[in-house]
Amino acid sequence: MKESIDSILTIDKNTREIVEKTELEIENLKKGLREKLTDMENESIEKSKILGKEKEDEIDKVFKKKAELIRDENKKNLEKIEKFYNDKEEDLVKEALELVLEGKHNV
């Protein structure tokens, strides 16, 4: 009878040790999984930042090119206006002077 009780106690002790060891292994696996998921999340965040920066740089490049084209077009238009004014300046001044002088005679 004593042997049976000792045998049952030994089995019980071994069972508790196996359960504790299994629970410890499960906790270690959970911990490892949480760490792996955190690493994956951080990696995903970094990749997203890099992709966002690349897209921002692309958009910035496009807008700078458009701004440069608009600036060049405005420069050409300004040059045309200046040329027109320079070509017509003398005539415009004469016409303006005549209008002013005519206005004084009418007063």
Account of the protein in words:
98% of the residues lie in helices and 0% in strands. It is built from one helix and no strands. It is mainly alpha-helical and 107 residues long. The chain has one helix spanning 2-106. This is V-type ATP synthase subunit H. It comes from Peptoniphilus ovalis.
Distance between the termini: 143 Å
The overall pLDDT average reads 92
How many distinct helices?
1
User: In percent terms, what proportion of residues is strand?
Assistant: under 5%
> What can be said about the biggest beta sheet?
none
> Helicity, in percent?
over 70%
Give the overall form.
rod-shaped
| Number of extended strands | 0
Structural class: mainly alpha
Poorly predicted ranges (pLDDT <50, ≥5 residues)? none
Order of helices and strands: H
Cα radius of gyration in angstroms: 44 Å
